Amino acid sequence: MKRYLLISVQPQHLINILTGKKSIELRKMIPKWVFEAIKNGETVICLLYCTKSKPLIYQDYATNEDGYTYLSGFGIASYNKEACIINGKIVGQFELNQIEEIELEEYNISWDDISDYRLMTDTLSENEILEKSCLTESEINYYWGDGKLFAMFIKNLKVYDNPNKLMDYITKLPVKEYGLGTLCEVDLNNNFYKRLVKAPQNMMEVWSH
After folding, report:
1. Are 25 and 157 in contact (CB under 8 A)?
2. In terms of residue numbers, what domain contains 54?
3. What is the structure's pLDDT at 146?
4. C-beta atoms surrounding 105 within 10 Å
5. Over the stretch 59-104, which tens digit does the pLDDT of each residue have?
6. pTM (2 d.p.)
7. Which of the four, 50, 104, 152, 201, has the lowest number of CB atoms within 10 Å?
């Protein structure tokens, strides 16, 4: 089986990822196994789940001169176009092999040693963070609050022509749920899995055959 990191993204931010405007995703919490995989030189495949919140996002299709229908873009729907709506679906993936912690750098803003703080990572300036995240400084500070904040670098984005469903993936069944009559699958190592029916608020480990 293949392991993925499933990430829930709000529609207004996801459309910036899908159109290539947003190249870093900011998160306060990332699973430990993701850091360990990257440290070991591995690339983590991240699945992009569009949350069910509004605005509704739809896929737009076009047909070329040979009659081939292809995905041509995305838009915000004023009504539910049903089959074309991507909210509540997994719409693409990207490769993750770089994560940097966002920090505050102190600097002087006047001759009398009045100082202020600006955002930075090991490789990004504040302006680059704002541009690549498609967020304002106030939006980042509001989301950040206390604790740590990380920039996940989006690489080799792949947008699915046809979105996947949560049920296309499985998640490990916690030990406390074994034997409760839940329909599940078992691998050669006696790990129990069940079909995914609910998206995470942030992100989670999922698997597929």
Report:
1. no
2. 2-62+69-164+201-208
3. 83
4. 11
5. 876 676 766 656 677 777 765 555 578 999 999 999 999 999 999 8
6. 0.85
7. 201
b/e 180-191 (16+ beta carbons within 10 angstroms → b): eeeebeeeeeee
Count of structural domains, the chain: 1
Contact 5, 96 (CB under 8 A): yes
Q: Where are the alpha helices (DSSP H) in the chain?
A: 11-18, 32-39, 126-133, 137-144
| 50 burial via Cβ count (<10 Å: 0-12, 13-18, 19+) | buried
What is the enclosing helix (H) or strand (E) of 59? strand 57-63
User: Two tokens at 23?
Assistant: 């190249």
Is 170 part of a structural domain of the chain?
no
Q: Does residue 55 have a cis peptide bond before it, meaning omega lies within 30 degrees of 0? A: yes
On whether the CB atoms of residues 81 and 58 are closer than 8 A, the answer is yes
Cα 85–chain centre separation: 18
